[in-house]
Amino acid sequence: MRYRELLELYKKGELAEQEAEKVRTDIERQEAITDYLLEVDEVFDLSLSEDFLKERTLSDSEDFVKVINRSIRKAFRKLGVIILVMALIMILFIQFALPQIVSLFYYDPGKIIGEEEYRTTKQIELDMAIYTSLMLPGYYRNVVNVTDRGYGNYDINIPQSISYNGRFSDISGKIEKGRLTLYNNNVLRRPHMNIFGWSEILSETRDSYVTDQPLSELTDPVDYLTVSMNPADKYVVFVTLNRQMPYEDFIAWTKKEEIPGLLWCAPCTRASGYPQNLGFYYDFLYGTDMGWDRDAYPNLFFDTDKGINKESTMLSHFTSQLRYLASREEFCKMLEIYPEELSAAADYVEENGLRIYGFVTLVNKEQAEQIEKSNEVFQISAEELI
Predict the structure, then answer these.
(1) Distance CA 324, CA 316 (A)
(2) What are the CB-based long-range contacts (under 8 Å, 24+) for 254-260?
(3) Which phi and psi angles does 249 have, rounded to 5°?
(4) How far is 103 from 279, CA to CA, in rounded Å?
(5) Exposed site from 26, 28, 146, 368, fewest CB < 10 Å?
(6) Long-range contacts of 182-188 (CB under 8 A, 24+ apart)
(7) Helix (H) or strand (E) holding 145
(8) What pLDDT, on the 0 to 100 scale, is given for residue 102?
(9) How far is it between the farthest Cα atoms of the chain?
(10) DSSP assignment, residue 189?
(11) How far, CA to CA in Å, does 89 sit from each of 15, 32, 84, 103, 171?
(12) What is the per-residue pLDDT for 116?
């Protein structure tokens, strides 16, 4: 007898007491199972299709319970697989994707910005090249090794690729979420005050260093004791001119006087206040192998020496460097540079031209003494190369 027929007899009350008791027990058990499944309906989908209910017949209550148990086990297996897959996705996300997503919100020194024939240019390499060109004569750097530690954190190493004294000074440090820490900050530390003598004429009654007067008529030179220099070493020598010269006149004078060494020119960059420690190299070799947006920043570096004696060429070069660095707000923040001052300096020289009041060169003691004898030189000071 089928179980359905047994149920019909139970409903009619035609079953013996012993069989009727067995059916009642089965019904209670099935009601309990149904109530339980309803309570966890959001977790387990144990609904049976209409076709299944039509075609499926159970010989007894044990078969029905087996089907229910199989459905529960299947739901648990499905849930376990889902949990395992979700856990794996979360682990992969945390390990690989999340560090990169966090890094998007901070300065990325390792970002590739140029693919040239002989080298790939990273973001910090171009930033550092412009920074050292404008503000650190004698300490140009354009190579930076970057190790990405994720979450906006990087280890950096800044090697010295060119040496003028036979010694090399590499700089190590880290960038953590846009904050720069250098373990040896001496090389990249900017002077606190202007390094040329024109700042000495400023007073309560005079707030501008820009003038056509010779500096010797306004103040006395300072003796920096160049005799204490070691004759065998090269030095970073800061030369204050006695009068401010237009760029082309200045270059003509250096050639006439046969000024040795690598020239870094310091032009007037604002009408009032202290002169800024800003300048540019009179050299076309720096940065020629780097990649950058040449349309936005023409003459950022030169490929040849054509035109470098002309003011228009070097004006474009200097203002391109100033405006590029001003656009790198995250980098400027790390180095405590004010972009608005760089933009203002670019505006000033575009309006007034390149008026050179001093220069830097790398020479030995004998060469420095020879430069000091020139009538156009007000005073010189020397620093030992680090």
Answers:
(1) 12
(2) 254/359, 257/371, 257/374, 257/376, 259/361, 259/371, 260/361, 260/363, 260/367
(3) -65, -40
(4) 33
(5) 28
(6) 186/386, 187/139, 187/386, 188/132, 188/136, 188/139, 188/141, 188/158
(7) strand 145-150
(8) 67
(9) 134
(10) P
(11) 58, 38, 9, 20, 39
(12) 75
Burial of 145 (0-12, 13-18, 19+ CB in 10 A): middle
SS3 221: coil
In contact, 357 and 196? CB cutoff 8 Å: yes
Sites in the chain below the pLDDT cut of 50: 41-44, 46, 52-53, 58
Other Cβ atoms within 10 Å of 370 Cβ, number: 14
What's the CA gap between 226 and 368, in Å, rounded? 8
- The residue assigned the tokens 């530390």 is 189
Say what the pLDDT of residue 226 is. Answer: 56
Compute the residue count for the chain: 386
pLDDT tens per residue, range 15-59: 778 887 887 888 887 777 766 665 654 444 545 555 544 555 545
From CA 131, how far away is CA 342, in angstroms rounded?
A: 11
Strands 264-267 vs 280-281: parallel, antiparallel or unpaired: antiparallel
Contacts of 25 (CB under 8 A, 6+ apart): none
Query: How confident is the model at residue 225, as a pLDDT?
Result: 52
Residue 88: C-alpha distances to residues 76, 81, 124 (Å): 18, 11, 35
Query: How close are the terminal C-alpha atoms of the chain, in Å?
Result: 104
Secondary structure (DSSP) of 21-75: HHHHHHHHHHHHHHHHHHHTTTT---PPPHHHHHH---SSHHHHHHHHHHHHHHH
What confidence score (pLDDT) does residue 64 get?
61
Residue 216 is classified by DSSP as G
